[in-house]
Design the sequence.
């Protein structure tokens, strides 16, 4: 039990749970190997008190942090877990629920998003392309966003160096961006809207990706893009680069990308847009959300994108979503129509 009542905040730090040293004998070692198994397969009574405590600490609470909808994001920093909650009430409820089990305390930072700078986690290879802090001035209702610029320069050659993700990595990236949906509050979104209305686009250039996937900010970006000329749209595209294919597969980012595709784009922007999709196009084609963006892109008649379909025909035809996409848009593949129909028929007959 904690001896004093702390002033609550939306950030809670969890101190490292004590690890236990086990005797090196066969019986104990055999039981230790069970700690990695599914909890449904473990006989808890086979463990002593300390071993049961470790099992619950390492496994049970990890799942809680991962699945608790009150938690916006979990950050591993300096050996501690920083839990960022959606609002103050959720943080207090969590504290009340676990204060007598976990060693934790509230963190009071003027800029809570500081903890999103350089965080480490099981997805530490998937990090924000910028380090962000907020300075809010309640007096003039402005939001200032400071960033460390992405090392990549904005030129078309950089796209050639963009990574082609495996299916697992691609799904992890989608999950990562989806978890940022509450990163900006409704109040933040309104302030960003004012900045964009005044054409102060620095906020957009350096924070494009997470603005796209925000539950509130995606709407603001759609409105902004609808009123933008092709020069601003080009800057927007170059800010997204290869990750545009991932954002097109997120719950809220998909709205932004589909809106972008539907605009009256210049030939150069159409080409650039399609090119950024090609690296991971197969994953997008077979994604239940992303495939809608690909279908819209096919209308641009971009040869490199259509070649992706042909080169990966068996993979796409063998996928439930991919085969539907091909069948629905076969009109765009006049030169390869017979080949596609053959593969689609093979897939139907096989199943």
Sequence:
């Amino acid at each position: 039990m904690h001896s004093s009542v702390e002033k609550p905040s939306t950030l809670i730090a969890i101190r490292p749970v004590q690890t236990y040293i086990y005797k090196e004998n066969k019986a104990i070692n055999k039981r230790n190997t069970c700690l990695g198994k599914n909890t449904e397969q473990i006989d808890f009574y086979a463990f002593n008190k300390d071993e049961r405590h470790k099992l619950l600490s390492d496994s049970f609470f990890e799942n809680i942090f991962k699945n608790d909808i009150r938690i916006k994001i979990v950050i591993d920093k300096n050996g501690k877990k920083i839990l960022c909650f959606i609002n103050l009430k959720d943080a207090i409820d969590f504290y009340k629920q676990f204060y007598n089990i976990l060693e934790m305390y509230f963190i009071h930072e003027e800029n809570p998003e500081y903890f999103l700078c350089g965080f480490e986690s099981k997805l530490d290879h998937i990090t924000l392309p910028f380090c962000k802090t907020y300075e809010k001035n309640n007096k003039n209702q402005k939001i200032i966003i400071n960033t460390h610029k992405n090392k990549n320069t904005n030129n078309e050659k950089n796209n050639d160096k963009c990574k082609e993700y495996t299916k697992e990595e691609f799904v992890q990236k989608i999950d990562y961006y989806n978890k940022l949906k509450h990163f900006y509050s409704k109040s933040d979104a309104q302030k960003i809207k004012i900045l964009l209305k005044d054409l102060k686009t620095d906020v957009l250039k350096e924070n494009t990706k997470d603005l796209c996937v925000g539950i509130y900010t995606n709407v603001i970006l759609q409105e902004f893009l609808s009123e933008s000329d092709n020069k601003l749209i080009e800057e927007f595209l170059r800010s997204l680069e290869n990750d545009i294919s991932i954002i097109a597969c997120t719950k809220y980012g998909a709205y932004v990308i589909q809106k972008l595709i539907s605009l009256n784009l210049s030939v150069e922007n159409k080409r650039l847009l399609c090119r950024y999709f090609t690296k991971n196009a197969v994953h997008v084609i077979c994604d239940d959300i992303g495939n809608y963006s690909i279908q819209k892109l096919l209308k641009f008649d971009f040869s490199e994108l259509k070649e992706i379909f042909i080169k990966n025909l068996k993979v796409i035809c063998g996928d439930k979503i991919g085969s539907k996409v091909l069948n629905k848009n076969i009109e765009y593949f006049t030169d390869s129509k017979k080949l596609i129909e053959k593969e689609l028929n093979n897939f139907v007959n096989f199943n």
Summary: The beta strands are 11-14, 71-77, 80-85, 104-106, 132-137, 142-147. The chain is about 45% helix and 10% strand. Residues 68 and 94 are 9 Å apart (CA to CA). Residues 131-311 form a domain with the Leucine-rich Repeat Variant fold (CATH 1.25.10.10).
